[in-house]
Every structure is written in C-alpha cells, then in structure tokens.
Amino acid sequence: MTPRPRGALNARPATGRPGRVPRYTPAVRYVLRAAALAAALGAWQLLTSLRVDAWLRFSQFPTVVDVARAFGARLGSGAYWQDLTDSLTRIVTGFLLAAVLGVLAGTAVARSRLAEDLLGPVLEVVRPVPAIALVPVAILLFPSNEQGIVFITCAAAFFPVLVSTRHAVRALHPVWEEGVRTMGGGRRRILRSVVLPGALPGIFGGLSVGIGVSWICVISAEMISGQYGIGYRTWQDYTVVDYPGVFVGMVTIGVLGWLTSTAVELVGRRVTAWLPRRTLDARGGPAPGRTPRGATAADRATGAPADASSETTADRTSTTDDPGAGPHPDRGTGTIAPPAPAATKPHEPQGTQEAQLSQQSRQPQEPREPQAQEVSHDHLV
C-alpha cells in the first residue's frame, strides 16, 4: 500500500479553474470604495440634472455641483468651523462619559447580584425611552442648553455600552476565573486580568453602536434646543429654504460620523490585537496564510499546516548508533515496519509429554466425600 503524502488530508480540493485566486490588496480595496462613491455621486448628478419625476421626485433636489459650491463657500466662513467644533466637543464629552459609566454599570450588574437587584429594574425601565424624548427633562434639570445636549448624548450611548458589557462579562468562561483564584488572585486581579480583557471585544462592539446613536441624538438635540452646532445650522438652512446648505450639513454629519466610528474601531483593533483576524480572498473564502516554520514541501504545496508532533528531516534520515546497521525500520524508507511477531513457546519433544502424563496418572488421588442426595418427599404429600 502506497503511503499517503504528508499534508494530503488537509489539502484543498481542486476547483477546476486554472491560476491562483487573487487576494484583495489595500490598493484594490481603496479603488473599489472610490468607484462605489463615484457611482453614487454620478447617479445623484444624473437624476437631479435631468429632473426625473417618477415615483421619487428629484426635481427639487440640488445637484452635486450646487452642493459642492455651497460647501466651498461654507469652508471659507468662520461660523462653519465654530459649529463643527461645538458639535465635536459635545459628542466627545457625552460619548466618553457614556463609555466609562456604561462599562462600570455593565460590569457591576453582571458580577454582583446586589447591583443587579438595585440597578437592574431602573435601567430596564429607562432603557426603552428614546434619548431624544429626554429633551424636556434636560431642559428642566440643567441650567444651560450645553449641559442638556451633553446629557442627551451620554444617555444615547450609555445603554448600548451597558448591554454589550453585561453580556460580554456574563459570557466569560468560569474556568479562567477559577484559575486565577487557584494561583492566589483576588477580586481586583480577576477584574484586571480576566474580566476586562475578556470582555473587551463585546465592549467595543457596544462602543461602535453607541457612537452612531450619539451622533443621531446630538444633531436632534441641536435642532431642538441648540444655539450652535451642525444640527442647529442645518435646521436654520431648512427654515430659509437653502437646500444646498441642508445637504452641506448632511454631508458634514456623515463624514464626522464615519471618522469617529473608524477611530473607535481602530482603537478596538489596537486594544484587542490578541484576537485572531480573518482575511478573505476575492471569492469570499479564507485567504491562504503563511505556512508555519518546519513545514515540508508537500505542506507548502497544499497549504496544509505543519504538524507539531511530526518528525524532522534529521529524524527521517538518521540511522542507529551502530554504523554497520541498516536504516531504522520506521525512518528513511518511508514505509511502515511490520509488527513484531508474538513470542511462541518452544516445541517440546513427544517423549517428554508422555512422561509427564504417566507421572500424573501414578499420583494417588484423594478420596472424594460422598455427596448427600436430596430425597424428594412429593409422594408423601
């Protein structure tokens, strides 16, 4: 039987297509993203310039050229940068407060029954209330509109972070905590070494959701009760029927939201660098990674990982200590050595067997005691 080559079990099946599957390089991805954005802008310009009125009405929409002109005019004014600074200050302040409070409250609720009994009912009752509905409450509670907008922004991002942290902490395996306790670690060591690092992926998932919700609520709060900010300026443009200015505000909000979400994601990737990353090829399948060190030629050809317990090249080509002896039966030849035969008892001559039988027959046998027979009394009944 011909032995199977190393790595054949993990080899990928042939797809029938010649050539190697191309991988997505960063340059190709950027080109695709730019092409998608250019296609969307081109469709916008085409529909608005032709004033298409079908089921959707594009005749009242400003064209891309009109929005670009208005955007260039806004960039040269100081009011635009003032609004931009105010909105960013509010979003950063409220989001940071929500991140700290959400992580602390989520960890406490997940780790302590007392905290769950005290905070759980109140949080679950307040959580379904939209953050924008808290505008009247913020006006009554805080003396200035600035503090009220920060409060609404914090409330919007607080609950996504809270829920994500709570589920992430509860999903941790108890074996990790027991291992730290076995080595003498206390509660602080468990929180620092097990709970927080293990819950980081879930926490940053909640932060990514919270930053988007924060932008929605801060713009809405600025439209209702703000005096400065992107939301306030966008609403003012709408009241004076300046539709290019409205789209300038919308584009600004979208770009700022994308930048802040990307920043949160990059920080999360940096903090959770120990997580395995999966890359995809052009067909959507897993891209082939680097072959581990110590892999054979068959492993490199098939892409199979090297076996940690496999023997090295020196082991396969080494011989025994005796120079005159041949190669080891399990090494060098590539064949499997047959199992060693079982040890058999040497054959005894026939005369010896007959002598043993005659000796056993001459030995006196002990008399056997008579066994009492059971008498049936059924006939007496």
TrEMBL record:
It comes from the Bacteria. Keywords: Cell membrane, Membrane, Transmembrane, Transmembrane helix, Transport. Residues 1-20, 279-381 are annotated as: Disordered. Residues 282-308, 353-364 have a biased composition (Low complexity). SUPFAM superfamilies: MetI-like. CDD domains: TM_PBP2. It is found in: Cell membrane. GO terms for biological process: transmembrane transport. Residues 309-321 have a biased composition (Polar residues). Belongs to the binding-protein-dependent transport system permease family. PANTHER family: ABC TRANSPORTER PERMEASE PROTEIN MJ0413-RELATED, ALKANE SULFONATE ABC TRANSPORTER-RELATED, MEMBRANE SUBUNIT. This is ABC transmembrane type-1 domain-containing protein.
